[in-house]
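User: Quick sanity check before I run a bigger batch. Here is a single chain. Can you write out its predicted 3D structure?
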Amino acid sequence: MDEVFKVDKKLIESKDLDVLMLRNDPSADLEERPWAQYAGIVFGQLAKRMECWC
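Assistant: Done. Predicted structure follows.
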């Protein structure tokens, strides 16, 4: 993992992507983290609205 953190980060814009795949299992969050149940959906909506994510 140390090698991953050493790589320079680059800002990308979602309008330049063909696909933005978000992985989320809402059933895994139901009891302990109910707030996280819709986190993937909300992130996707924000990325679409802002057309920018990093």
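Residues 39-50 form the longest helix (12 residues).

User: Great, the batch can go ahead then.
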